[in-house]
Amino acid sequence: MKKYGPVGKAYQVLADALGHFNTDDGYAVASHVALSSLMALFPFLIFVAAFSGFLGLKQVAQSASELIFDVWPKQVAGPVSNEIQAVLTQPRGDLLTFGVVVTLWFSSNGIEAMRAGLNRAYRVRDMRSWYWCRAQSILAVLIGTVVLIVSTFLIVFGPLAWEWVVHLAPVMEQFSYKANIVRYGVTSLLLLIALLAAHLYLPAGQRRLWDVLPGIILTMVLWIVAGAAFGAYLARWANYVSLYAGLAGIMTAIIFMYLTAVIFILGGEFNASLMRVRRLSRRNEQGSPVTDE
Hints:
Blueprint: H1 6-23, H2 26-54, H3 58-69, H4 74-88, H5 98-121, H6 130-168, H7 179-201, H8 209-236, H9 240-244, H10 248-286
């Protein structure tokens, strides 16, 4: 096997990742992930609203949706967020009825779509039973709900606690401008934890933290770049209203979700390619016969 320098190895990994993304029908799978995730978003937030109301935290659900859409371009988040806020303002008393089962099932469809995308990206065949995988997806929705509610609760009531701190120690008032930094920091941390859990536990097989971390970092960086670029494109050049009329809002959301899904799958492909190159390098160093996979 030919030895490569750092630049050569980086090119080899990227070329391998992009090549497998194309042969694995990455664009088609990204469409599936994007549409399933968008369809799962409403049921998930409805469940969050119902669960929050059950706990007596009715305002937390609306703040939770705002927390989710903080990382979206405002041109995309605006129309979708408005519709979700309209849904969340409706009273929800069906938490303990059959409705919650249906809501959980549709919410877990987004997790299942991501599982399918990552299985292809990591080039593994999932031999686990479908009911075990579905139970894992539903558990992920439940854990995500609790984590989102707790994090939102801390963000919502954080300013009240901060005012109490400032009242006791007025010198702390000079740090008040950091409130938004904390808000975005919490959002980024939740996103990082969600990506780690997705790459480690959703696809079949076992991977170490260091195996999945490079692709996760690449995903988050590309998401930031893509979000800024897509937001600038919508603000300066795109005129979806003339093309799609009343569907402009949902079309921008679908396109944005598609971009994020492509990047999400590319992160898995990048990890798989990096793991493959490392494995081939170790075999080469040990003098073992090497065959490309």
